[in-house]
Amino acid sequence: MKKHDFNPESLMMTHGYKPELSEGAIKCPIFQTSTFVFKTAEEGKAFFELAYGLREKSPKEELGLIYSRINNPNLEILENRLCLWDKADDCAVFESGMSAISTVLLEFLKPGDLLVYSNPLYGGTDHFIHHFLDKIGVHTIGVMPNQSTDEVIKMIEDSGKSDQLAMIYLETPANPTNDIVDIEKYSQIAKQFSTNDRKALVAVDNTYMGPLWQHPLQCGADLVLYSATKYIGGHSDLIAGAVLGNAELMLRVKTLRTFLGNMVSPHTAWLLLRSLETLKVRMDQQTKNAQIIADYLNNHPKIENVYYLGLLEEETEGYKTFQKQCSAPGAMVSFDIIGGEEEAFIFLNNLKLMKLAVSLGGTESLAEHPKTMTHAGVDEEQRQEMNITDQLVRLSIGVEHAKDLVWDLEQALEKVKAKVEKALN
Fold first, then answer.
1. pLDDT reported for residue 407
2. What is the pLDDT of residues 275-329, one digit of tens each?
3. What does the DSSP assignment read for 134-150?
4. Which of 97, 230, 399, 415 has its CA 20 to 30 A from that of 106?
5. What pLDDT is recorded for position 400?
6. pLDDT, tens digit (0-9, with 9 covering 90-100), for 260-283
């Protein structure tokens, strides 16, 4: 019989795990141990030579288990399974999304280098770029979603640092506005400023789309990053991050992770393995619900604008990019409520089913106010430029029944309407 290529969702239950090594347990146990026993001193020596990069691996040789800061069965199986979605050579999982992001930026940027980044970014990433990288002498240029290739190239050339461009860091779709940028376009820009001795890398934060709806490595990116807390974890009960890419780059990422000590714990890795089994069915339901919610809000008289990839107008640049690099519009919906902070807060305070909390990608629907919450640390002038205003509300749509979510939005918006009418009278 012809060999069958299984889809990733079918392999999430079994890939990389051998029940015979764990008393026949159908599910991978939690390997809650700090260290591992070597069979011989020679074996221990061989393992450490590989772990510290003292020699190349021989054919079919694998790094043996040493210490849970370096490797652990839960961590290794998790990283192997995550690779399937993005078709990556290797994966490194971290104790948080920011840990993954900061490790990548620290490994591939040094004083004097130039970093080009897209706007808007998640507030934590924005803070790290502006308040930490600046302190260590990394030069940065922020670009907006609607800027053309020529404009971006001119900004890089005008900086006087074009020969030091080390990385282009993209977040697409962007948090919290759903702005989308063309990954392939930026990969071409990176190639233009690369040399035989120095390659400018493209790293993409793919958190908003999870491993299902967009695959940046297939669009020309060198690294893809996730807050695995979100869709990958999917149950709002853990904190984790992930980075994926080719073997050469991932060796550098994993080496720095070993010495920073910011890998995920065996228990958290085990929880993520559990979550991967339902990732596709969860995300399929979430994007289905989100389209219903976006359509409802788009026709509501109290809503001024709705920002959702499923509502992009055909023939626009955003729509063309979406069609090229995404397989679904995702489950993040942002909108401008008519009014300002007061109206936004009335809406948020009157939700019954949706919960008022930051984060996203969980089974439950969440709502928050980006300007005063997730993006409170972003410079005010920059927030205005990125349309993160008093009016903006962000929703993360879960797996509840869509009719119940619409009811909740409707009754909360009615409270806003009643408050405004009372004030006018």
1. 98
2. 999 999 999 999 999 999 999 999 999 999 999 999 999 989 999 999 999 999 9
3. TTTT-EEEEE-TT--HH
4. 230
5. 98
6. 999 999 999 999 999 999 999 999
For the residues of 23-92, what is the DSSP string, one character each? TT-SSPPP---SB---SSHHHHHHHHHHHTTSSPPPTT--PPP-BTTT--HHHHHHHHHHHHHHT-SEEE
Q: What is the dihedral of CA 366, 372, 378, 379, to 10 degrees?
A: 150
401 burial via Cβ count (<10 Å: 0-12, 13-18, 19+): exposed
What distance in Å separates the CA atoms of residue 82 and residue 100, rounded to the nearest whole number? 15
**Secondary structure (DSSP) of 239-284:** --EEEEE-HHHHHHHHHHHHHHT-BPPHHHHHHHHHHHTTHHHHHH
From the number of C-beta atoms within 10 Å of its C-beta (0-12, 13-18, 19+), residue 334 rates as buried
User: pLDDT confidence of 96, banded at 50, 70, 90?
Assistant: very high
Reported as type and span, the H/E element at residue 413 is helix 402-424
Which residues, 6 or more positions from 52, have their beta carbon under 8 angstroms from its beta carbon?
none
CB 280 within 8 A of CB 246: no
Give the pair of three-digit tokens for residue 365. 């629907």
CB-facing half-sphere around the CA of 409: CA atoms within 13 A: 31
> What was the pLDDT predicted at 424?
67
Question: Nearest to residue 364, comparing CAs of 336, 330, 411, 331?
Answer: 331
pLDDT at 425: 61
C-alpha to C-alpha distance for 372 and 257, rounded to whole angstroms: 33
Residues 6+ apart with CB under 8 A from 11: 81, 84
